Known about the structure:
This protein has about 280 residues and is of the alpha/beta class. It contains eight helices and twelve strands. It is globular and about 55 Å long.
Amino acid sequence: MLATGWDCDSELCITPGESILIELTRRPAPYYRAMSSWHEQLFDDRYLRFYPELFDLDRAAKEADFIDRALALQAGARVLDLGCGFGRHSVPLAAMGYRVTGVDRSVPMLTAARRLAAERNVDVEWLERDMRDLSGMGPFDAGVCLYTVFGYFDEATNEAVLKNIHGLLNSNAPFLLDVSNPLPLAAQQQYETWREGPFGTRLERSVYDALQGRVIADRLLIAPDGRHEMLPQSSVRLYSPSELRRLLELSGFELEAVYGALADEHFVPNQSPRIVLLARKRG
């Protein structure tokens, strides 16, 4: 992810016009309930301080335009955004006239999502749910799962998540799955990045375990006052294109197209940072 649109000298700043998110980033860390797994602890105000580029809503709007073109839905269609975060894609999709349901486990993210929707004067149904249990929801005319929120669990559970999504969709409904591409990581296996941001210096160390197909990442934020803030270590299963196709087909989907980003970009196996798959529910 690349931060864009920043132009300020103050310790606390966000992209122009997005003051709705200030309150969340001002909360003292940690702000989360007692949880057991990394994916139940990582996505709070600390995560947003570490990735302020997520506040680039102009970029999110362009990605939503691509999603709109890819799904090719009728006005008023019901769309599921699974792992919606603070709603940066749910909100522009709702502004296009879709009836959007945003699902996330993180209370802080959903709080920010509700504020963003209110700022943009759009209606979105926000649900605090675990993607492993989506019973009682739907049916939906389409589903999206964006920015590598798929792959958090073990093999069997990840497969079950796809089957859960399949069960929520109407017949022939499109499904857009967006994940990080592991193929460029295979040659490097271990990498470290340092970046400056409005909330301090960010260090991210990632190791790609080729035998397990997982990326293990550690993140440290060094605040301007010198405080060190370590985020929970994450471990995400990154599937190859062939593995993703197999999983989708086993779950009852048919693959229609593959892109290299949330844009009209061809997928280049060893270069594209992302794998974006457009599939359709069979039957």
